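Researcher: I'm preparing a figure for a lab meeting and need a structural model of a single chain. I don't have an experimental structure, so a prediction will have to do for now. The sequence is pasted below. Please return the structure as tokens so I can convert it later.
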Amino acid sequence: MVLRVGGRDAAQQPWCCAPLAELQCITTELQRNTLVLLWRVVGGCQGCYGESSGGRCCIGASPEAIGAAMKHHRATGVVLEHRPDHRVPRSAAMELRRVPIGKTFETRDPRTGDVIASIAEGDKEDVDLAVKAAREAFDHGKWPRMPGSERGRIMMKYADLVEQHAEELTLLESLDAGKPRTVTRVVDIGTSATSLRYFAGAADKIHGETLKMSTQFQGHTLREPMGVAGLIIPWNFPAIMFFCKVAPALAAGCTMVVKPAEQTPLSALYFAHFAKQAGVPDGVINVITGFGPTAGAAIASHMDVDMVSFTGSTAVGRLIMEASARSNLKPVSLELGGKSPLIIFEDADVDLAVDLSISANFFNKGEACLAASRVYLQEGIYDRFVKKLADRMESWVVGDPFDPRVNQGPQVNKEQYEKVLSYIDHGKREGANVLTGGKPCGQRGYYIEPTVFTEVKGIPEQDDMIIAKEEIFGPVMCLMKFRTVEEVIAKANDTRYGLAAGVVTKDIDVANRMTRSIRAGVVWVNCYFAMDADCPFGGRKMSGFGKDASMHALDKFLAVKAVVTPVYDSPWL
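Model: Understood. Here is the structure written out token by token.
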């Protein structure tokens, strides 16, 4: 594989396509009652500002000015600079009010490990304030009472703003999460706008049913917003998952308290600003930055939160469910972990199979709950597949996510980096063979070589390896053999998870049998990661329950109410 850590084959400094001018994002603050991102140009650019060093400050600039500056400089290696006098507020409620700064926590650049921002740490008191604002907006505000068509119009404007500022959002997301910039622009930010538009179109199509009752009564159902929704966002897809939850909640007429992951909090604050610009009323969206055991737990256990939608690990999902049950028995939707199988039959196109296995495991650095880290190969294709896979991995590029040549950036933080390396060490100690990768790379940052293990003893063998049964959440692929359809069905299902699966075959009968036999929320045939706003996404077993995306996601933010009235002397009974 090609390692371009730091973006250059030899150097370790961040890669930048415009070396004379690099934009630094200083921080986020509430200024003049508006949430703005503050940027400055550094490194000097005589062609732009006539200054050989230092650059010109853009403090207080509008998002439009920021975007223009970014595009003008074609900046790539964007870095947030911590300044104690410019700290991110712990709560970005839609009132966008100034709040006192108390405890803070640091967020770090995964390319280097350096601190990029100081973020205010929200606690139970802040959650109480945010829930109070959301409750007031729901009980007395206009958003739940607004015609669906008007909510949809505002959401369409919201989507327009996301697209208009796609460049800034791409830079933030890539910086915060270590995602390759080229992919982030199309997948993460593009999908975010698409989700908003999809649910904007659904906002005026929420309707009930007429009931044919057997006695002298007539009935119908109403579908009403659930109330205040607690939305807890994961760190691996901050933008996508923000709108997977916020968009259907908005369409339903709910108000909400949103907690982004502490590892990747930046884009959620910017999204709150755009909601305000689009016309979402005060108190509808309330963003709290903080940690799961404090802010997240306070949301899950709050007596005035009416439902919770959570995406994250199975262990934390269990805690969310327990806290919700112990408080006001609020309903929950949980999208949790996975250990998905990719099953490749011997009649498959081997080039397609290799392509799918790479994307199913190394997309987003393997930080995807849907990742198919269990790759089952029928014996007749195993050797050809392994050779082609090894050849393909020779051209895989690991490095700075702002380098357009890079396929894989750094893991999100040091904790995740060390966790993935520990799983790789487990695999080696348990006897698996390393085909490619298996090591960290680079002098700085959280870069790991994409790792492929062969000779893996997998489920349901008695001596199955840890790497074959536990979710790794990193760039690690396990290859295992099988002989028959019956054998691989048993292996695919012998896991506590049930999130996704993939099948690669030219035989439609085999494909049909597999899709009906695998217990998972989604099964892809001759493709992987084929997602759409209209495709329900969610798991079974310990991968959780409830759906993100599609009209099924809208349903979880709606309560069904039956209305019954008597009918006198009707000729139609």
